Request: fold
Amino acid sequence: MKKELGINPYLFPMPVLMIATYGDGDQVDVMNMAWGGICAENMVSLNIGEDHKTSENIKKRGAFTLSIADIPHIEAADFFGIATGNKMPDKFERSGLTAVKSQKVDAPVVEEFPLTLECRVVEDKMEVYGHHVIGEIVGILAEESVLDENGKVDPTKLNAFVFDQFQNGYYAIGEKVGQAWNTGAPLMKK
Reply:
């Protein structure tokens, strides 16, 4: 029997996205957020509270990078969700991570994160649910250590983790359990 749980943002898994931007004076800011993802083949969608430093930076610079955090950097990734750049100007420096300027957009690339999408803002507006940003993916950077023999990202090598909205936990991912557009094919023959 099912039990009513009320209105909550209960989906699983939720991504752990690292949104990196430049603020005034090229100050690096990184935000941990779960409310975003791919919305088209070459587009990402972000829903950000307007009061975040990241929101202000995106409006000013028109660009951001979106990275997948890995388990070896979970402490810094979680810190980026706890601390606010509005009150802690040295937030990024405290993490001990390093950043370089993207070659394609006006935003930083965090060197330690294994996969980064470089994005140019194509839509930026306030909605009833917050600051909505659509970014066009103009480049993707990946550490060679997470690529397979064909040069594609191997999720088992990414060492990524996801967010659990039910109990606010992080969970490791990586075990392959099926093949998309193939595992369900036997049911097509019924």
